[in-house]
Amino acid sequence: MDPESNKRSRDEFEEQSGHANDGRFPPQQQNFDYDFKRQRIDPAQELINNVCKDIRRLGENSNVATQIDDVNYISNPIVAEFEKIESLRNAILSTMYALIIEQPHKINALGNLVFICNAKNFVIAKYVVEYLHTKMQLLLDSIGGEVQADTSRENAGVLNNIKSILKFFGAISPIIDDYSVVNVLKQLLQFAIDLQGGSEKRNGIAQEIYYNVLIATPYLLSNDKSEELHGYLNDIIELADKFPIIEPDSNTLIQPFDNKMENFEIPYQPKKMVSLILPALKKLQADDWQLKLFLDFEPFLEPILKTILENNAISKDIVKHKLPQLSLPSTEKMNKYKPRNEDSIDRIWQQNSRVLLQVYNQTTEFETVPVIESYIGLFFKDLSFDILTNLSFNKTEASIQLSILDLFFNRELFTPMGTSIDELIEIDTKNRTGGNNPPLSTWKIEDIAVESILTMIFQLPHTLHREIYYYTVLISCCKESPDSMAPVFGRAIRYFYNNLQTLDFELKIRFLDWMTTQISNFEFSWKWDEWVQDSQQFAKLKYHPKKNFIKNLIAKEIRLSNTKRIKESFVDVVDDRVVPFDEFYQYLDISVVPNTRDYIINYDSALYGDSEEIRTKITEIYDAKQATLAAKSNATFQDEIFYNFTNPELPLSSVASQIYEFIVSHYKSNKEMNELYNSVLEQVQQDQPQSDNMVQVDIPNPVKFVINLFFQTYAYIGSRSIYSEVSILSRDVDKLKFLSGKPIDSKKVANPDDEFEKLYLEDDDVTNRQNWIIDAIFRIWVHQPQVIFLILEYLIEFEILDPKYLIAKAFKTNLIIDNVSCIESINRILETSKAETLRELIFEIFTIVVKKLNELDLGIDDVVQIDELNEDNAPEVDKQWLFYEYLGLLKSYFRKYIKNQATESNDDDVLQNIKNVFNDLENIPARIEILGWFKELS
């Protein structure tokens, strides 16, 4: 069987997925015969465009022989014009560099082009070697500040890009003089040893250089199979053995799974990349450096090179080029090095030990991806990370390149794309019984691509790019090959869902985000039947991770669509019959409280004095509104708002109408606002007249009533869209500050009389007003948590509301644990807070969490055990889960805002204050665990 028959070329891949071009340029428009002249293209520029496009597409043909023929053809215009046209020369060199950095899987294909060009005109290869050597030197010089690095190419980091250049030099080592590539590798490796040897603490940059040299070293094998090379490789291994791997005793803060103080077994023990690479190379060494990874171009390339050299009038032998050693920065400069781009791979290495996520090999008895203990496993992870990071400007191209990665390597490495798990089980069975001789691969390129992307999504303490980038790459991968990719995604989703009990708290939020984005892009389709049993089993629990996940996933889907559409997705087809899963209907009410009816009636009744008469009237109005809504086929979120104040059946409706009219007016002065506030407050404080058709009320707290009246009215008037709400809030910032008790910025006003009177509020008065504002927004948008928190975030942004009050509210009923809109909002507030405010808020959160943990009263001396759920112990089990969810939240904020923050942001006093807070935790085992986090600080 032709080993290439199952491979898709780039063109075939794009035809299947609806692409007709290379992902970078739009398709050519149809050529109509217009009267005007076509724009004349400069022939040199046209040549540059064509040659550079051909270089970018190297290796994307599945037939190796045709690849080499194409490369030979592409080389002709390069050889003919390279020395003549400077712009062409510069464009080719910069394109080669971009290809090495952005698409490193094409390094060997690019090497073939350099080999052929070298045989035809060695000057071209000389330029290439010198250009890339200069690039490496400039990158190193940028560390010391001697030159500015090209930031447009530094997404992954200076040292990471040097790694890719080293790989390329390894691939073209047959035309590099005197094994100079080995000398450069050893030079950098010794540099890493010296850097780490000068410190008793982990040096992340030294670890990165060490890892990068070793991951690049086997590229020497791609085009050189000599015994002499093996000796040089053995020398590198011997030198690498001298690198001291220094790691903290514990890395719990960056591990993706948490055993909840040994309540559970985690799926696997995370392994550090720096500890894996040398043993992987030693295994290759033990196998006499037999690496069946790279495509064998020699049978097709050698005859062409031989013919070219025979016809070369200048040299009949391959010309080799010098590669000088590098001028390295001083140890002092390296120790001060901080990557310019904070979201770079260099930065990850510098701050944290790098651990690899494992998904697919955990769920099958055979491997669907190479194990990470092997060089090939690390190799494909490394390639995928670089593609994702350096092609972040083009998610479509990133997804395509990841999906066709198998084109560029040994044809026997991967099973054909789209091979099902059942088929792999059959292959594995035959492999075990000898039915396949030699054994066939069960590795799937789809699994490698998806697992690599998921590794980037679940990277701790943070992702390199915003999570949405990785989500969209996954979606693009799925849309490129839906039949092949959908089962791969399904297995990953099930893996994370099945391990929700141990998945890190922050990673659960990312998983929720990814799942939401994923299924919303595919008609909200999911096998909901798989989760029916869990929903039923955990029905009495509020804080179990699986119950929480299901509830919040549905809530997020409703936010992206509507209740009716999501309800319709809870179906399956059994024997040609549509079967609804009514188990999930309970989650369609996404209100922020368990019983919206009771909440609204109680809240509003309390505002008006909570008499029996007013409660009855509000109940009648509410039930009538609900009856009207029920008659609507597709009620909107705006329809669901229950705004009472202007209802003529309620007292003070005329006063509410005054406020309504005031707010909808285009502009009112501060003085008018002041007068309205005083007038309304005075009317509310008066005894309400008795009449035959009006309930008499005695408002218990007039100021609270007025604050609710104003803020609920603002929220109601802006309810058409969040844009409308922001517009009206931003218009009246000073007026709202006046109501909230927040200080109003002194401004030079044209009319000094247009200022608010001073209210002379005590601290308690301000606190009450701030809390009443929050309660008012909760009340008016109770059925839409997302809107509640968005409005409150804008009030915080406009400095009308102090964020500490919203944080207190988030913890009061544990909303921050069980409501995704709440945790997302708090996270956004923290991320956008200024340094001093952030420090105060984090300290406040730590204090509150410790208090909440103590209030659960789950013992002092023993580890909190999570009991097996039975019919009688649901409340206690729920408390146990809440305990560990709060510990997970605490860990995520400590990791994000304490572990990797600059020293000046977290001085010894700050850290000691946090330790003092943690020392107040009564449960001793939990206290010991969280105090242990301080040992992992950078």
TrEMBL record:
Residues 48-288 form the MIF4G domain. GO terms for molecular function: mRNA binding; RNA cap binding. One of its GO terms (biological process) is RNA splicing. This is Nuclear cap-binding protein complex subunit 1. Residues 1-29 are annotated as: Disordered. It is found in: Nucleus. Belongs to the NCBP1 family. Keywords: mRNA processing, mRNA splicing, mRNA transport, Nucleus, RNA-binding, Transport. Residues 1-11 have a biased composition (Basic and acidic residues).
